[in-house]
Amino acid sequence: MKAILIGGAQSGAGKTLLTLGVLRALALRGLRVQPFKCGPDYIDTGWHHAVSGIASHNLDAYMLHPDTLCGLFSQHMADADVGIIEGVMGLYDGLGSEGECSSAALAKLLGVPVILVIDGKAVSTSAAAMVLGFQLFDPAVNIAGIIVNRVATQRHYHLIKTAITRYCDVPVLGYLPPLTEWELPSRHLGLVPAQESPRLQEQWDQLAACVEQHIDIDQLLSLSDCTPTTGRLPMPPANIRYPRLRLALAQDEAFHFYYPDNLQLLQDIGVTIIPFSPLDDNELPDCQMVYIGGGFPEMFAERLAGNHAMRASLLRAGQRGTAIYAECGGLMYLGAALEDRQGLSFPMVGLLRGTSRMSAGLKRFGYCEAEALCDNLLTERGDVLRGHEFHHSEYITDEPALFSLSKTHADGQVQRWHGGYGSGHILASYLHVHFYQRPALLRRWLEQGCEQL
C-alpha cells in the first residue's frame, strides 16, 4: 500500500494548498488518489474532492475507535493507488499537551510515513533545528521527507536543503515558491468552501504543474510504501435492511457539511438518499427521513427566507411526523428566525421556536461530549455521543434541551452547557456527529422513518 500524511510544523505552514497540488499532480499522472483529512474538518475535504474528483474521508480519532478508524482507512484504500492524508494544525498538536488526536498519533496508528511541511520564509540553517526537533520529539513517528514552503529563490532553497540534509538525515523533496495568487479565500469559519469557488479545473492543473516543477513527486511516491494496521468496523444499526426508506438530503451552497462515511453507512443498510436544495427547490422530495447538515445558512439567509415554498414543505413534513435530523446550520434553518450581525432577522422553517443570532466571534469550538437528558431521535436517556462544535452563532430559545454537553480543557477545567432541541421525531443541535462511532445510534431514526411508510 502507498500512503502518506502531509503534516505541518504549525498551522499556516501551507499543508492544505500543498495537499491540493499533490492530489492534482498524482491524478494527472493517471493514479487513483484517495484523499483523507485528519480530524473533523469539512471544508478541507470539500477542496480535496474538488481537486481530485474523489470523496475525501475524515479520520477522526476522537469520535472513532482505533479499530473503526483503521477499518475505514483500509476500506477506502482498497481500490486506491495512493492515499494522501492532510494533517491538522501542527504535526503534534491535538487534545491537551499529550497530542491525543494529533496528526502524528494518526500516522503512528495507521502506520503511514509523514511528509513534514515547514515554512521557509525568513529562515535558513535554523530550519534544520526545527526539523531535528520534530524527529527527536517522537522517534516512533516516521518523518520520511521534508517539503519547504514559501521559498523565495533557488539559492534560498539550497541553503535550507543543505542544512536539513546534513543535520537531520532526511530527504528534502522540494519546495514551493510564494503562491499569493493561490491563497485560498477565508471568512469567519476558515476557508471558503469549494462549493462557492469559481476556480476552474485548468487552474488546478496549473497548481499541479507548479508542484511537479518544484517537488520530486517520484521520490515522494517511493517514500510512501507502508503496511497499515488492519481494523474492524462496528456492526450496522440492525440485522435488517431498510430498502423502502427514502432520505431527503439538504445539498447546496448553504448546506454541504457531511461525512461521506455517514451517508455511505445509510446507503449500505438500504436507505435511498435523494438530494434537495433548500435554496432552489420548491418542495421536499417524497421521503420518510430528512438530513440537514451544517454549512453557511447565514451567508444565504435572504434566499432561504425567500424560498417560502420549501420552508412550508419542510414545516408540513415535520408536522406530519417525518423523522428530521439536523446539525449546526440545519439547526439554524429549522428555527423560527436567523438574525445576522447587522440585526436583520430572516424567517426560517419554524419547526423549532428558537432564533439563531450571529456573533462576532466563535461561540463554541472543538470536541465535546453530549449526554442525553431524555430519549431522542438518536439516543436514549443517559447515552453519550462524541462530536464537534464550530460556530459563530448562538441559538436563543426557551425550549427544553435534549443534551448536557461538556468539554474538558487542557488545564483540566470542564466547561458545561446545554443544547439539542426537538421532539420525538426531530433532533437539531450544533453537534456534528460521526455515525461510525456507534452505528446503532441510527436505529431510532430509522424506526421513526419506518413509521411514516
Give the number of domains. 2
Question: So, CATH architecture of the largest domain?
Answer: 3-Layer(aba) Sandwich
The chain-level mean pLDDT equals: 93
State the helix count: 13
Secondary-structure class: alpha/beta
Radius of gyration (CA) equals 23 Å
Estimate the global geometry from the Cα principal axes.
Answer: globular
- Major β-sheet profile: 7 strands, parallel
Q: What is the highest CATH level, the class of the largest domain?
A: Alpha Beta
CATH superfamily of the largest domain: P-loop containing nucleotide triphosphate hydrolases
From the N-terminal CA to the C-terminal CA, the straight-line distance is: 45 Å
Please give the share of residues in helix. Answer: 25-40%
What does this structure look like?
- The protein is α/β, with parallel strands linked by helices and 453 residues long.
- The chain has 2 domains: 3-222, Rossmann fold (3-Layer(aba) Sandwich); 246-450, Class I glutamine amidotransferase (GATase) domain (Rossmann fold, 3-Layer(aba) Sandwich).
- The chain is 29% helix and 27% strand.
- The protein has 13 helices and 26 strands.
- It has helices at 15-28, 43-52, 66-77, 103-110, 126-137, 154-168, 201-214, 217-222, 260-268, 301-306, 308-319, 329-334, 443-450; strands at residues 3-8, 33-38, 57-59, 82-90, 114-119, 143-149, 172-175, 186-187, 190-191, 246-250, 255-257, 272-276, 289-292, 294-295, 323-327, 337-339, 345-347, 355-358, 364-372, 384-391, 393-396, 403-408, 414-419, 421-423, 426-429, 432-433.
- A 7-stranded parallel sheet has the order 3-2-4-1-5-6-7, with helices on both faces.
- Helix 1 runs parallel beside helix 2 (43-52), helix 1 (15-28) crosses helix 7 (201-214) and helix 5 (126-137) packs across helix 6.
- It is globular, with a radius of gyration of 23 Å.
- The two termini are 45 Å apart.
- The model has no long low-confidence stretch (mean pLDDT 93).
